[in-house]
Specification:
This is Lipase ROG1. It holds the Pfam family DUF676. By secondary structure, this protein is an alpha/beta fold. Helices cover 26% and strands 16% of the residues.
Length: 434
């Protein structure tokens, strides 16, 4: 559901309540029950005490999700997204690190609001968080490629408006992780438009920090240094069979039914269930584990200093542990041997340092249309993606009253019903490379 721009503007200073001072008096006359001014135009009736009370209550409810501590603001952009950063009195260096968050299926920019606020609170002068808004709600049915292209264009626009940023990181939840993977490939080695941009009414070319507009380094994402690529409960290997959607309980009949009805979720459903066959090409998720002449999926991912996969080990009914943690099911840790690693993070049950799996045999299944069995597709995607090093963080909300919402709790989509995931966000922040 789209969020009005008025709901994303957090102001550092309270309003003085004035707004009618200095207004010029206008003559008015009464005509029956209606008041009109001298020109004959109706004048609005004064609000009753009951109406004013209702308005104040509505205003209060709108500001509930806004930051309560001073000097934080979230500024809406032209594309509908918003940038969250800290504003302090006096001049100071602008944040050099841009963090882009990406929502999942039927989500919106609002889903990442809690995490964005915590990142800015932890690194007030170093980061600006942009909660992307190019793929909300129904637009998430358009397909990973279309969504990824939209996100790429949005990021270019944001970078043009943030001339001081030098680094970039992405955080994607669920489908958002796949969309981010596509977008970074489109942005790999490119930068925003090279023409001068105006910042605060001044020519951007006069700003020395605009260096990223001319940067041609191919190991850059949108002309910036790629640092963190983080996914949370993302179906990297798709959602086709093999218990990758736990709500089907591993029943082959239900999984086959889901595959046949994947079109219900539009092109996105066909991408997730690996049933797309556009122009005779392999499934998109399979294409996204290789570099091609036109788009460098693996090179783009490899350019980041670190790649992290947060995964629900249980209670996530939408995305399986294997696909979200980039492991074979036979290599998943035994749940009974896992427990909270630290008091500070009660729901983090295992942290695995960056690992690379070398691929000894080159697989060419992407060129063979007859090799479409789920296990083979899954194995190919897993082998290619794990040629890059990934940190894996396993999460469990077992025993929590919010475990049924684990898929959203790992992100703290709504602080009221997903608050148990706050330690997961804190773990993400504490290990973030700034």
């Amino acid at each position: 559901m789209a969020t009005p721009e008025s709901e994303v503007e957090a102001k550092c200073e309270a309003s003085d309540g004035a707004g009618n001072g200095g207004s010029e008096a206008v003559a008015s006359i009464d005509v029956g029950d209606q008041t009109v001014d001298a020109t004959g135009k109706p004048k609005p009736k004064p609000k009753t005490r009951k109406q004013q009370k209702k308005k104040n209550k509505r205003t209060k409810s709108k500001s509930y999700y806004l930051p309560r501590f001073a000097c934080m603001r979230s500024e809406p952009g032209e594309d509908g997204g918003f940038d969250m950063e800290v504003e302090v009195p006096g001049e100071r260096p602008r944040p050099a690190h841009l963090i882009v968050t990406v929502n999942g299926l039927i989500g919106s920019a609002r889903d990442w609001r809690f995490a964005a606020k915590q990142f800015v609170k932890q690194y007030p002068e170093k980061v600006v968080v942009h909660c992307s808004r190019s793929n909300p709600c129904r637009l998430t049915f358009d397909g990973v490629d279309v969504m990824g292209q939209r996100l790429a264009e949005e990021v270019k626009s944001v970078v043009k408006d943030q001339p001081t940023v030098q680094k970039i990181s992405f955080i994607g939840h669920s489908l958002g992780g796949l969309v981010a993977r596509y977008a970074v490939a489109k942005l790999y080695g490119s930068g925003p438009a090279s023409e001068p941009t105006k910042v605060n009414g001044e020519c951007g070319s006069e700003e020395p920090a605009n260096h990223h507009l001319e940067d041609k380094n191919t190991d850059k994402i949108c002309g910036l240094e790629p640092v963190n690529f983080i996914t949370s409960a993302t179906p990297h290997l798709g959602s086709r069979g093999h218990k990758q959607v736990p709500m089907f309980c591993g029943f082959n009949s239900l999984e086959r039914l889901a595959i046949h009805s994947s079109g219900f979720l539009g092109r996105t459903g066909r991408h997730l269930f690996l049933t797309d066959n556009d122009d005779g090409k392999p499934p998109l998720l399979l294409q996204m584990v290789n570099d091609s002449e036109n788009i460098k999926f693996i090179s783009a991912l490899k350019s980041f200093k670190r790649r992290v996969a947060y995964a629900n080990a249980q209670c996530d009914h939408l995305v399986g542990w294997s696909t979200s943690s980039l492991r074979q099911r036979s290599n998943l840790p035994k749940r009974e041997h896992l427990s909270a690693i630290e008091k500070k993070y009660p729901h983090i049950i295992k942290v695995e340092g960056a690992k690379t799996t070398s691929s000894e045999q080159e697989d060419s299944s992407e060129h063979k249309n007859d090799r479409r069995k789920t296990a083979e597709l899954e194995e190919t995607m897993l082998r290619r993606l794990t040629t890059l090093s990934w940190e894996r963080v396993d999460v469990s909300f077992s025993g929590s009253k919010q475990q049924i919402f684990a898929h959203n709790t790992i992100q703290v989509k709504n602080q009221c019903i997903n608050s148990d995931g706050e330690d997961v966000i804190q773990h993400m922040i504490d290990n973030f490379i700034v």
